[in-house]
């Protein structure tokens, strides 16, 4: 009896703390999707979402391409009963109609309960994955998870300062770029004159990101930089017009420029790629502008590049 009472008390606490419409949603840093986490869960330290103090209960939150939601809806409608023990369900949320699944599985040797949910967003699909070990499902019940899903909300945009703070370097000069969008939390970000809904290609934009180990020998760096520039996504009919070593903020770097076309309207663009090499992760900058806008855009690109500083 003494062992049961604490568990029952905690279960009662969880039940009484189920998300309510008036509760404030919590948005993981850099994301447009948030929810009211269940009691006992706090912002995770190593992934976007929430986790219990011991790390065994996990709620992963991320953003997927906008088409992902429609694909899931079609899959649900074609097989509403589910398969292989996967239970399918849907629920109304402030963000829209959410679809989710519930199933049992294992994390290593530990039996777990898994939930996956998708919800529509403006220009993205919100995705949530929950994992609860079997010894905690009496506390974090199916109904508790369902109520947490019911609290899902979206926000139109993430404040620029919040996005920039996630990057492993400081961006001290935005060069009047107004649209700031995280591409991969903590590793790449885009600054643009256009926006996600209208497309970026018709106006100047710059992407800042980190890449893994890069060549150390000068000849290898030149080849690496040129090959990387010719494989920039979204740029077609690429032609290298300049490629040479430079110093960027006192470090070895490489500048490569290409001409090509981009976007569904086949906009002629000029693109510059800067790579600032280091023994660990290197900085890669890709900046693009329609060819007629290039003379005015290039000084802005360079201002952003030269304003990047290490943290700490």
Structure description:
- The chain has 312 residues and is α+β, with helices and mostly antiparallel strands.
- The protein contains 6 helices and 18 strands.
- The strands form 4 sheets. Strands 2-3-4-8-7-6-5 form a 7-stranded antiparallel sheet, sandwiched between helices. Strands 11-12-13-17-16-15-14 form a 7-stranded antiparallel sheet, sandwiched between helices.
- A hairpin with a 4-residue loop joins strand 7 (110-120) and strand 8 (125-133).
- The longest helix has 13 residues, at 4-16.
- The protein starts with a helix and ends with a strand.
- Mean pLDDT is 88; it is low at 1-22.
Write the layout of secondary structure elements.
Elements: H1 4-16, E1 33-34, E2 41-43, E3 49-52, E4 58-64, H2 67-78, E5 87-93, E6 96-107, E7 110-120, E8 125-133, H3 142-150, E9 153-154, H4 160-165, E10 169-171, E11 179-184, E12 188-192, E13 205-211, H5 218-230, E14 235-248, E15 251-262, E16 267-276, E17 282-290, H6 294-306, E18 308-310
Antiparallel strand pairs: 1-9, 2-3, 3-4, 4-8, 5-6, 6-7, 7-8, 10-18, 11-12, 12-13, 13-17, 14-15, 15-16, 16-17
């Amino acid at each position: 009896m003494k062992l049961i009472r604490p568990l029952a008390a905690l279960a009662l606490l969880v039940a009484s703390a189920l998300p309510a419409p008036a509760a404030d949603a919590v948005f993981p840093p850099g994301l447009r999707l948030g929810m009211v986490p269940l009691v006992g869960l706090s912002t995770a330290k190593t992934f976007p979402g929430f986790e219990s103090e011991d790390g065994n209960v996990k709620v992963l939150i991320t953003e997927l391409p906008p088409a992902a939601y429609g694909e899931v809806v079609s899959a649900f409608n074609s097989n509403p009963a589910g398969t292989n023990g996967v239970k399918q369900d849907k629920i109304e949320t402030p963000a829209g109609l959410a679809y989710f699944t519930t199933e049992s599985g294992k994390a290593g040797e530990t039996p777990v309960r898994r939930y996956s949910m998708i919800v529509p967003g403006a220009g993205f699909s919100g995705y949530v994955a929950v994992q609860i070990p079997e010894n905690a499902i009496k506390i974090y019940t199916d109904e508790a998870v369902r109520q947490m899903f019911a609290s899902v909300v979206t926000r139109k945009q993430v404040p620029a300062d919040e996005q920039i703070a996630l990057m492993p370097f400081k961006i001290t000069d935005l060069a009047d770029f107004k649209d700031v969008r995280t591409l991969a939390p903590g590793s790449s970000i885009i600054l643009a004159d256009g926006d996600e809904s209208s497309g970026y290609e018709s106006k100047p934009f710059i992407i800042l990101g980190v890449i893994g180990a890069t060549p150390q020998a000068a000849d290898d760096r030149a080849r690496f930089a040129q090959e990387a520039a010719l494989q920039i996504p979204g740029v077609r009919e690429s032609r290298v017009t300049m490629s040479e070593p430079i110093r960027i903020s006192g470090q070895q770097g490489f500048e490569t420029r290409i001409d090509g076309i981009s976007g569904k309207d086949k906009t002629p663009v000029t693109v510059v790629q800067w790579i600032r090499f280091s023994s660990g992760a290197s900085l890669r900058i890709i900046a693009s502008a329609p060819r007629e806008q290039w003379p005015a855009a290039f000084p802005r690109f360079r201002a952003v590049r030269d304003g990047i500083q290490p943290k700490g």
